[in-house]
Each structure stands twice: as structure tokens, then as C-alpha cells.
């Protein structure tokens, strides 16, 4: 799967893409992440990509010309219904597990990282096919949210996690939060691992995990139960 990331700050992606699961997935050719510096597509000698907002106000707004030029140079000017072009924006749909699974069905995604006060509205209206937010808060730019999307989507692709069944049992995969996990030692500072997990009775273990998952969801995220009822 290929990710095209359009950004003013490609260095923001260096560390996360060179660590852990994403690094291994890149090395094995399971995913392909390409960074495109929007400044390279500005036409003035200072590579200016932002300007003051019409009507006044605080902050700067990213200009449409370099964003359109960057995306069209990489993706092409022809509309491609199979290629989502997503603007990372606090005004977008709030990202969740269902959206990650939906996006993982594509072979290619393009993510545009907004910055400053935002992007020119014509980018939203005439270039992007979707807008995604990672939560009801604002961060400095779209780079960290884009990394969240890349990580969440990439790990759903075959082979990325090593064991493809892992993603089927995690929190939100079945609409519930995941059950508690324990490992050795069985006794840590007097806190014991539940006896059922040491029993070897897999039917009882599964029953316990399902009950714990339901209980945890009811206590921490009851709205998930309402959504799935």
C-alpha cells in the first residue's frame, strides 16, 4: 500500500517511520510512504506557501497554488475515484477504527497536512475527497495526525503485524474495548494474575475475556454499547 504525504515539514515523519512496526513494514515492502514537500511546488524564489487571510484575522493561510501543483504532479490531474485525497483538519470526520478499516481497502492514499491557520477553502472544495480529524482538539499541524492515520491503516494490511489476527481482537475492532492483559510474573508485589488465565481452560479464558471486555466498555465507554445495540 502506498501513502503519499504532502507537507511543509517532511522532517516530522523521519523518526516514526524509522522505528518499530512501520520501519519493518517499509523494509519488507508491505507499505510505501512517500514524502512530498509542498514548498518544492511554490513558484516564487522564496518558496512562499502561505499568505494573510482575506477579510483580516490572525494567523496565515496556506495558499492553494502549491498544494494543487504538488498533488497534481504526484497523483495526476485526472480524478481517480480509487484514490482518496484526504485533508488532515480539525473540521474533518473524527477518525475511528471503522474508517481505518475502510481506508485499508485502498491500495493508495494521499494525505495533505495543513498548517498555520489552515488551508485555502478551495483546496477543500475542489481537490480533497475527504477531511479527517483525529479528535476534538487542535495540534500544530497535520503531520502528527497524518502519522496516526498511516499507522492505524498500515497495521491492518496483511503481513504488517506478523499475526494478522491481532487486529481482529483489539479495542474497537468488535465495537468493544479490549480485555485486560497479563504476563509474567504471576505475582507482582502481591498483585495476582487472575486464576482463570492460569487454568489452561481455553473456553473459560475466552468467556472471562468477553465478560471483561463488556464490563470495561460499560464502565469506560458506554456510548459504544449504545452504538452497537
Characteristics of this structure?
single chain, 229 residues, Alpha/beta knot, Trp Operon Repressor, Chain A, 5-stranded parallel beta sheet, two-stranded antiparallel ribbon, 9 strands, 17% strand, elongated
Structural overview:
There is one protein chain. With 229 residues, this protein is of the alpha/beta class. The chain folds into two domains: 2-154, SPOUT methyltransferase, trefoil knot domain (Alpha/beta knot, 3-Layer(aba) Sandwich), CATH 3.40.1280.10; 169-228, Trp Operon Repressor, Chain A, CATH 1.10.1270.20. Helices cover 33% and strands 17% of the residues. The protein has helices at residues 14-17, 20-27, 64-75, 97-103, 121-126, 143-154, 202-220, 222-228; strands spanning 2-7, 32-37, 50-51, 61-62, 85-94, 108-113, 130-133, 187-188, 191-192. The strands form three sheets. It has a five-stranded parallel sheet with strand order 2-1-6-5-7. A two-stranded antiparallel ribbon has the order 3-4. A two-stranded antiparallel ribbon has the order 8-9. β5, α4 and β6 form a beta-alpha-beta unit. α7 (202-220) packs across α8 (222-228). The protein is elongated and about 70 Å long. The mean pLDDT is 92.
Tell me briefly what this model is.
The chain is an alpha/beta fold and 229 residues long.
Cα shape: elongated
Count of β-strands? 9
| Major β-sheet profile | 5 strands, parallel
Strand content: 15-25%
Q: Which structural class do the helices and strands define?
A: alpha/beta
Look up the CATH topology of the largest domain: Alpha/beta knot
CATH H-level name of the largest domain... which superfamily? SPOUT methyltransferase, trefoil knot domain
Order of helices and strands: EHHEEEHEHEHEHEEHH
The number of distinct structural domains comes to 2
Average pLDDT figure: 92
Identify low-pLDDT runs: none
| Number of helices in the DSSP assignment | 8
CATH class term of the largest domain: Alpha Beta
Report the span from N to C terminus: 34 Å
Q: How are the strands of the biggest sheet laid out side by side? A: 2-1-6-5-7
Share of helix, binned: 25-40%
Say what oligomer this is.
single chain
Amino acid at each position: 500500500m502506498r501513502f503519499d504525504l504532502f507537507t511543509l515539514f517532511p522532517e516530522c515523519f523521519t523518526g516514526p517511520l524509522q522505528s518499530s512496526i512501520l520501519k519493518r513494514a517499509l523494509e519488507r515492502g508491505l507499505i510505501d510512504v512517500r514524502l512530498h514537500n509542498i514548498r518544492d511546488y511554490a513558484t516564487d524564489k522564496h518558496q512562499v506557501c502561505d499568505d494573510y487571510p482575506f477579510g483580516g484575522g490572525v494567523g496565515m493561510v496556506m495558499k492553494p497554488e502549491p498544494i494543487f501543483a504538488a498533488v497534481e504532479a504526484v497523483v495526476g490531474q485526472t480524478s481517480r475515484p480509487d484514490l482518496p485525497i484526504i485533508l488532515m483538519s480539525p473540521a474533518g470526520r473524527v477518525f475511528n477504527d471503522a474508517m481505518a478499516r475502510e481506508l485499508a481497502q485502498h491500495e493508495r492514499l494521499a494525505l495533505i497536512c495543513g498548517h498555520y491557520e489552515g488551508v485555502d477553502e478551495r483546496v477543500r472544495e475542489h481537490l480533497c475527497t475527504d477531511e479527517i480529524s483525529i479528535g476534538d482538539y487542535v495540534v500544530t499541524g497535520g503531520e502528527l495526525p497524518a502519522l496516526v492515520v498511516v499507522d492505524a491503516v498500515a497495521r491492518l494490511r496483511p503481513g504488517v503485524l506478523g499475526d494478522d489476527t491481532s487486529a481482529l481482537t483489539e479495542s474497537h475492532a468488535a465495537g468493544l474495548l479490549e480485555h485486560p492483559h497479563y504476563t509474567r510474573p504471576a505475582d507482582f508485589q502481591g498483585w495476582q494474575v487472575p486464576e482463570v488465565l492460569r487454568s489452561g481452560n481455553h473456553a473459560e479464558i475466552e468467556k472471562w475475556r468477553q465478560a471483561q471486555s463488556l464490563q470495561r466498555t460499560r464502565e469506560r465507554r458506554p456510548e459504544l454499547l449504545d452504538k452497537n445495540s
